[in-house]
C-alpha cells in the first residue's frame, strides 16, 4: 500500500477570481466523476475536496491572496495515464484562466508516501531530498542506534544511522577529507581512528604504510560496504592495524594516563554521540571530552582530523570553533569545504593542531 | 502568500483498527477547534478533513491496507509552535495507538508552496530536491529560454535554464570535467567552445595559455556568475580568445567548409537544444548534427569533450553512445562519472576522438 501525492500550484500577481476559477475547473472534475465537497474556510478563500474512483482524493484551494494549490492523492496501482491526463487538463485550464496573472506555476515530482522503500532522507540543514533508493540491504536496531544500509542506484550502498546519511560507497571524498585531503604522509606514522565503523578510513590509511593504526569502534558494517572497507574489517588485527571494539572514552583515558601518543588522530564518531556517561550531560560535553582526550594523546607535531557539519549550520560550526578555543591545551585549526556525493550538501572538515 | 504543507505517515504491518484510531485522535482535533468532515470513500478506507483557525486544513486517511497518512496545510505566518504541537501530539498518539504494528513512521520537512522564492528544482532523473535558495538574483525570458540566477547559501549563484540547474559557482568540478579532468595540455592549442555562456570553461582554458580559443555562444551571464567566469566575458575578444555571439550550426558549417580545424572541441550546449532549424526535427537530430560537425572540425589527434546526462538516465546515455557509433566519421569514446556539487546527482562526461 502506497500513495502518490501530486501537487500543482499557481502563484499569481493578483488574487484569482474565485467564481470564474471554480466554474472553469469544475467540468474537469465532473468528467473524472469526482464528487465535490465545498468547505467553509471562515474567510480563508475557496476550499473544495473531491473524491474519485480508485480512492482518488483531491483538494483545490484558491487562497484570497494570489495562491492556488491543488493536491491529488492516488493509490499505488492507479491508472498513471488517467492521473496524468487529469493533472495536464487542470494545468492547461488554469494557465488559460490565469493568463497574464501567473508569477509561477509549479508541478513537483509526486511525493511517494508509504512506499516499500523510503526515499526521503532530509539533509542536516533540514531540506527535503529524494534519493534513488531501490533496495533495503540491511536494517537493525542495535543497542546504540538504528542502522540501515540502503542501495542507491547512483551512490551504491548508503549507511544511514538514526535517519542520517552517514556514508555511501560513492563517498571516497569524505574519507579523503577526514584524512587531510592527500596532504599528509602517513608512512611510518602512528594513527588513532575513533569510530569509522564503515572501515573506509582504515582501508585508505592501511594503503599508505603507516607504522600502526589503532581503531576504536562500536560496531562494524564489513558485509555491506565492501567498496568502502575492502577486506580490512574481516580481521580485527592486521600487519599494521588493530581494531578495538570498545567505548572510546575509557580507552582514550587509559592512553592519556599511560602517556601513549599518536601522529594522527582521526575522529569519525557520528555527530550524535553513541554513549554518554553521566559526567558528560550533553552532546557538546561529549564532543569536548573526546576532543580534549584526543589532543592529550596527540604528539606536538601531530594532527587531529574530524568532520564538522554541513556548511549551512553556521551556528553549530561557530559553537564548535569556540569550543576549540577553550580546550585545556591551546590549539589552532583550519577548515575545508568538501562535496561528499551522497550528502546533497557541502560538508565542513577540520584540521586541528597544538599551538 | 505561501503555504507550509506538513505530512505525517505511518506504514503499518497490519491494517489499523479504524474506529479505535479515529476515537484516539479526535480529541486532538477537537482541542485545536478543528471542524471535521467525514467523506465517503466508496470502500477505500477512512477519510476525514478538518478545517481549523487561520485557514488551517488537515486530511486524515486510514487506508484499508496498513497505511495512515496525515496532511496539514498552514498559511504563512501561522503560529509555528501551535502547528508543531498539533503534529507532535498526533505523532505521539499514533505511536501509542499503533504500538507494535509500526513498520515506519515518517514526518518530512514541510513542503513550501507558493513561497516568494522557489526552492524545488528536480534532478534530471526526476527526483524532488529542495535547495537552500534565499534570493532571486536575475530572471528573464529570452527568445530562446527562461533564464534564472538564484542564490544558494552553500552553492553560491546558480544558473537555471528552463527549470534545469545548469551551473553554480560551486561547480568548478563541472568545468574541469568537460575540459578533460586535468589530463590535457592546452598550451599552444586551438580550442573551440560551443555554448558555455556562463564563461566557466573560457575562464579556465584561458589560464592554460592556449594559442586561440573560439567560443560560439547565444547569451552570456557575465554579471552574476563572476566566481565562475571572472572577467573574461567583459570583452568578447582577448589576447587568446574570441567570443562569437552566434548560432552554432551555421558557423560550424562554415568552419567545416573552410577546412578550419581545432585541437579541442568542447560542447557545453544545454541538453535541450536552443534553436532547431527545420532540417533538424528533434533534439537528437540536433545533437547528431552538432556532433557530426564538431568531429569534422576536429584534428585527427584532437579531442571532443561534452556532458552526457545524469548517471541514472541509462537509456538516454545508451542512446547517445549508439549515436556515437553512427557518425559519418568513426570515433571512439570514454566516459567519466563526476560529482557536480549543486546537481545532487552524479553526472556523466564524454571524451570522443577519431579512430
Automatic annotation (TrEMBL), chains A, B:
Keyword presence, Transferase: yes
Pathway(s) annotated for this protein in UniProt: Amine and polyamine biosynthesis; spermine biosynthesis; spermine from spermidine: step 1/1
E.C. no: 2.5.1.22
InterPro entries given in the database record: PABS, PABS_CS, SAM-dependent_MTases_sf, Spermidine_synt_N, Spermidine_synt_N_sf, Spermine_synthase_animal, SpmSyn_N
Name under which the protein is recorded: Spermine synthase
Family: Belongs to the spermidine/spermine synthase family.
Alphabetical GO biological process terms: spermine biosynthetic process
Keyword terms, alphabetized: Acetylation, Phosphoprotein, Polyamine biosynthesis, Transferase
Amino acid at each position: 500500500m502506497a500513495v502518490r501525492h501530486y501537487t500543482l500550484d499557481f502563484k499569481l500577481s493578483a488574487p484569482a477570481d474565485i467564481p470564474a476559477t471554480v466554474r472553469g475547473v469544475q467540468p474537469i472534475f465532473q468528467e473524472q466523476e469526482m464528487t465535490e465537497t465545498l468547505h467553509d474556510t471562515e474567510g480563508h478563500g475557496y476550499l473544495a475536496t473531491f473524491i474519485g474512483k480508485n480512492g482518488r482524493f483531491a483538494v483545490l484551494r484558491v487562497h484570497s491572496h494570489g495562491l492556488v494549490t491543488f493536491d491529488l492523492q492516488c493509490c499505488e496501482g492507479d491508472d498513471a495515464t488517467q492521473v496524468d491526463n487529469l493533472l495536464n487538463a487542470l494545468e492547461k485550464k488554469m494557465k488559460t484562466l490565469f493568463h497574464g496573472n501567473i508569477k509561477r506555476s509549479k508541478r513537483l515530482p509526486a511525493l511517494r508516501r508509504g512506499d516499500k522503500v523510503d526515499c526521503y532522507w532530509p539533509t542536516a540543514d533540514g531540506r527535503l531530498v529524494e534519493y534513488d533508493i531501490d533496495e533495503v540491504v540491511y536494517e537493525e536496531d542495535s543497542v546504540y542506534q538504528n542502522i540501515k544500509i540502503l542501495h542507491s542506484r547512483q551512490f551504491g550502498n548508503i549507511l544511514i544511522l538514526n535517519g542520517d546519511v552517514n556514508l555511501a560507497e560513492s563517498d571516497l571524498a569524505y574519507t579523503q577529507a577526514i584524512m587531510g585531503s592527500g596532504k599528509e604522509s602517513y608512512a611510518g606514522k602512528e594513527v588513532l581512528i575513533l569510530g569509522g565503523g564503515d572501515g573506509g578510513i582504515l582501508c585508505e590509511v592501511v594503503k599508505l604504510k603507516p607504522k600502526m593504526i589503532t581503531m576504536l569502534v562500536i560496531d562494524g558494517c564489513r558485509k555491506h560496504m565492501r567498496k568502502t572497507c575492502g577486506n580490512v574489517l574481516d580481521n580485527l588485527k592486521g600487519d599494521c592495524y588493530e581494531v578495538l571494539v570498545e567505548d572510546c572514552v575509557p580507552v582514550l583515558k587509559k592512553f592519556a594516563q599511560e602517556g601513549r601518543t599518536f601522529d594522527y588522530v582521526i575522529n569519525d564518531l557520528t555527530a550524535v554521540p553513541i554513549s554518554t556517561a553521566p559526567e558528560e550531560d550533553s552532546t557538546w560535553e561529549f564532543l569536548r571530552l573526546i576532543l580534549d582526550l584526543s589532543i592529550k594523546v596527540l604528539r606536538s607535531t601531530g594532527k587531529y582530523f574530524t568532520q564538522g557539519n554541513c556548511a549551512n549550520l553556521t551556528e553549530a560550526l561557530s559553537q564548535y570553533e569556540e569550543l576549540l578555543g577553550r580546550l585545556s591545551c591551546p590549539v589552532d585549526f583550519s577548515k575545508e569545504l568538501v562535496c561528499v556525493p551522497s550528502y546533497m550538501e557541502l560538508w565542513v572538515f577540520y584540521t586541528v593542531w597544538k599551538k
